[in-house]
Design a protein that fits this description.
Elements lengths: L34 H22 L11 H4 L2 H23 L7
Helix pairs in contact: 1-3
Length: about 100
Amino acid sequence: MATTKPQQKPKATVTTAAPAKPKRTESNLPFLFDRQNYMIMAAGVIVIIIGFLLMAGKANDNPAVFNADEIYSFRRITLAPVVVMIGFLIEVYAILKRPAVAA
């Protein structure tokens, strides 16, 4: 005859619950940037817009005439791209600048 072993009860495992984290809501999330970062970003956008306006120039009076001196001028070929790149560098600085820590 077969002998059966008495069934063992599973051991109770004790789990400790982790402390509850406060839920993140819109009211307690800090801003990523402060006012100064946004002001620098706005200045960078304005510089970029000025650069593109310098690149565009004025409308041609006669579309049948190709004015190479006006199209390939210093302002459109050199100055405007440099101004746009300066605007993008201002934007990078505004993004990377750490906001002031409130005490």
